[in-house]
Write a structure and sequence with these properties.
There is one protein chain. By secondary structure, the protein is an alpha/beta fold. The protein has a single domain, classed as TIM Barrel (Alpha-Beta Barrel), CATH 3.20.20.80. Helices cover about 40% and strands about 15% of the residues. It contains 19 helices and 15 strands. The strands form four sheets. It has an eight-stranded parallel β-barrel with strand order 1-2-3-4-7-9-12-13, surrounded by four helices. The protein has a three-stranded mixed sheet with strand order 8-10-11. The chain is globular, with a radius of gyration of 23 Å. The N terminus is likely disordered. The structure holds ligand GBH. Ligand GBH binds next to helix 11.
Length: about 500
Amino acid sequence: MSEHHSTQSGPVGPSRREFLLAAGLLGVTAAASTALVGCSDSNEFAAPLQEFPQGFTWGVGTSAYQIEGAYNVAGRKPSVWDTFCRIPGKVLGDATGDVACDHYNLYPSDVALIAALGVKHYRLSIAWPRIIPGGRGKVNEQGVDFYKRLLDELEAHGITAHATLFHWDTPQALQDKYRGWESREIAGDFADYCTATVDRLGDRVKHWYTTNEIRSFVHTAYTYPGGPFDGAPPFAPGIELASEQAFWQTSHNALLAQGMGVQAVRASASRGSTVTLVEDSVTYVPLTETAEDIEATAKAFRSMSPNGGIIVPILTGEYDPIFLENLGASAPKIRAGDMEIISTPIDGFGFNTYSASYVRAAENNIGAEELPFPEGYPTYQSSWLKFAPDTVYWGVRMFTESLGRDDLKIVVTESGASQPDAIDADGEVMDTGRVMYLRETLKSAHRAIEEGYPLEGFFVWSFMDNFEWANGYVERFGITYVDFDTQKRTPKESYDWFGEVVAQNRVL
Ligand code: GBH
């Protein structure tokens, strides 16, 4: 049997592990890695040494609605996503997050698998509809207890939790009461929810993140006549507002919630805690790395939509003036004191990075032209996910060069790629496309660090395949494969690869 197996694998060559052993690349962590630096010439198989700084934060991430399931258990009430999923045609295959990865029940084995990967950091999100099922008012201690159990399990495995307070699961009760993010009232309710959560979990969590991607839960969930998505935005609640002005007012409410959330977390968090937001800022990459196109990149980063209306006000205290000029009468109405709340100081920046746009210098009021992607441009399973690995480098660099925030420590809170993975005849998931994506992305991250930009961590999205929003269970982002019929987890090739990256603290 084993002979048969070895003849079969013979012509294919040695396994990855055998090759690495032969090349002397396994077990070079810690003590031996310095030796390797000194003698890389002597080993013709030695890889380029793109090492990360000691203490670099390596992690993986997920979010509550995408993995937990248990949608009606222990007092949880619906979010706008539970409602949206039940409207036929909104989600591919009319899938829901009712069960998802059943992580609510399977969290102990999931945590063990995260620990086995070797990362010491895990980013999760906490479900508002579990903690305060009605959106405001009474706290559901049973919901809190789930997170206590999960956080204790992480702690027992030596894993530091990074908790996002809002990853798109707006309580349906608030949608019904005052139309959710369309109302300024939500900012106060969000802050109260932050306070309730941090009061109860602040002994277990030190790294807090308020909102995940205003760009997604507002800008991909609402539209206006003449706006994108032809009247039907793909994310919950999927609403067409009366005007572009109403759209930017809704976005402004989310900025206010973010700022009030930061203040609430700070007031309740334990000493030494950090709080920031997570945003998928649009990253621009210069068509050519010339001074002209790099300057155009910096101008685009600040002044194009939506950055000029999301990260610029949060990080500078003002909407970008050129962005506002281009918005004209559709600009949000700003009340006295709003900008101070919105720009409440944050500890670093959670940067989600997937795709990018190329820009070059142009004669317009921004000074940059965004270039459309031609047909045939390398693209992952998600049609929006263009392969543009330079995005991390340019994104991180632009916080410093375009926004002047060189004080801001940046953590890549999400980066990853979708593929229609499957388990092959050998029982493996050979997701080389994802390995290639992550390797090139890490080279770009390494370049940023090498040039002195303040990048301090990298979380792969996602720890496991999960409910991929409007794309249901069709698009897979995990480094762990999930069979949604059996809930069996199978580490993919990218899981093994990333584990080695973490162990050796360098690009492999
Ligand atoms: C992240 O968003 C999310 O934080 C995470 O929950 C999600 O699983 C992951 O990406 C992968 O999608 O509908 O064609 O207009 C990434 C940023 C912004 C990408 C909105 C998709 C909508 C594309 N997303 N965008 S489209």
